[in-house]
Amino acid sequence: MPVRSERTYAISELAREFGVTARALRFYEDKGLLTPLRDGQARVYRGRDRVRLQLILRGKRVGLSLQEIKDILDLYDLGDGQRAQMQVALKKFKARIVALEAQKRDILHAIESLKEGIAFLEGRLAAPASPEGVAAARAFEKEARRRLGEGG
């Protein structure tokens, strides 16, 4: 039976496929997240690196830190059928959901505060201006034109 060689990828191929820069791939390598082989100066990525990159980008998208992603990825080769990896990932995913739900509540509160502010301001602006307010606005406008050299 012939030996099938594993598919490999150049740095430019992975960068293009995943929409990242070659610099990002080198950064992940420096952090120990990817471990490409070397062919002289060229990096040669294997299928394993491709899958790890996919997991790195998914983890980043949901807000996991690179250290959390590394902690999960480093458990792959324990020989336990990835049980420890799955347990750690499950714990980190649940914690991230709790954090995102808190963030969601904060965002919804901020939106409500802004809507209340808008309603207040629109209400104030809809009311007719007092004669004193109109005079003050005209005086301000006149001074602004004078300072800008437009006459007045």
What's the average pLDDT? 91
Distance between the termini: 93 Å
Question: Could you please say which CATH topology of the domain at 1-62 applies here?
Answer: Multidrug-efflux Transporter Regulator, Chain: A, Domain 2
Multimer state: single chain
Strand line-up of the largest beta sheet:
1-3-2
H/E topology pattern: EHHEEHHHH
Largest sheet: 3 strands, antiparallel
Shape summary:
elongated
Top-tier CATH class of the domain at 1-62? Mainly Alpha
Strand tally: 3
Low-confidence stretches: none
Can you give the helix content as a percent range?
55-70%
Radius of gyration: 29 Å
Which architecture of the domain at 1-62 per CATH?
Answer: Orthogonal Bundle
- Class from secondary-structure proportions: mainly alpha
Strand content: 5-15%
DSSP helical segment count: 6
